[in-house]
Amino acid sequence: MLRLRDAIKGNLGVMMLSAGIWTFAGQLVIPFQSIYILHLGGSYFHIGLIASVAAISTIIPTLIGGQLADTYGRKKMLYTMSFIISLNFLIFSFAKNISWLVIASIINSLALGFRQPSFSSIIDDSTDEKNRAQSYALWSIAPPLFGLASPYIMGVYMDKIGITEALRIGYLFLFAASFIASILRYLYIEETLPEEDQDNFSINELANDIWNGLKETITTISRPLKILGIMGLFFGLGAAIGGPFWVVYATEDVIKLSLSDWGLITGINTLIGTVAAVPLAKVADRRGRLCLLIPAIFIMPVAIIGFIISRSFYHVLLVNLVVTLLGSIGMSSGQALFTDLTEPHHRGRVNALWSIAGTMRSFQVGISPGSLMGATGSLLGGYLYENIGRSLPLYLQSLMVGFTAVTGVFLVRETGKICSINYAESCPE
Questions:
Q1: pLDDT digits over 94-119, tens only?
Q2: Fewer CB within 10 A of the end CB, N or C, for the chain?
Q3: Looking at residues 191-219, what average pLDDT do you find?
Q4: How far apart are CA 403 and CA 380, in angstroms?
């Protein structure tokens, strides 16, 4: 059994604290980003367009970041890009129109692309194989707790002084908090890439190294990991199509909740998710990653449809609680499973491949995918929401999650038993 004291030591503890500080301010604005776009003169199509441009902007940086994470070092990439992302929030705060948001989103995505492989690899390297799902559950619990009340506070604040002004102030808070978090990572994170694997890099040789490194990395991807990757692609496409529109569907367009209502629902979801995460992760560590993951993904399309047909605060709250519980399973079991099946020395580049494709390692509704699937889905979702029907992107999201579930059956067949997969412990007899 994983002890809390052991889990919060070292890099994982620093990452949880720094991410928690970041999340406290981030949750003031992240749940309302789509509304911010609308109130700066954008349309529903612009919501999808900005998400699409941001996703495409991560492709090349992620390739480079993956190579550097596995050769140059993970800590350097982590804290440098964290500082750049932090400073970029000032552009979001002072944005005058949609053009500012496009520029800020591109800068943010470039830095995230460079940072993501190192970020994920440091977390992966800091988990123990036997307790990996529980470690990911703790990772999912601590940072969100910092932002538990933030969406409700911002919702009340926006109802009181206005959406645009409140969110501008929120982005200023996010800049300050993220800058502090970046300092903590600079001071206290320890490098996880072994010294013998570190090497100086040459700009002239970087492209060749990236290509050769990717070819070598692709050969390490096993068949079960490929199936899991396909599952993540379907899930990511659905998240990109429908995810950006949940908040506007619930508040401005169809269900007509107040912003404070949506903030309250978000806060309650965070609380329930944190309470449930560790018990669910213990099952994943003891009985196998797939025992809960596959059933959860099969139930999730029905839960999404439940949100679509909701017409009151309590209906939305109930459906979101179900989605949150299913997402807690998807987060800990999904990420642990991806890590189990990935060669340690290739984690940076493999994580880069997933990011470029838009493959989601965490099967959570509400998490945004990147790159190819993210760009495609966001553009499609924005067009459909504005021109065809408000609910259509959400129905498509449900359909894509359904495809994810069906694909998961092949993963079960590949591993023989639903409660046993590669490095995960086998089912008790």
A1: 999 999 999 999 999 899 989 988 88
A2: C
A3: 67
A4: 18
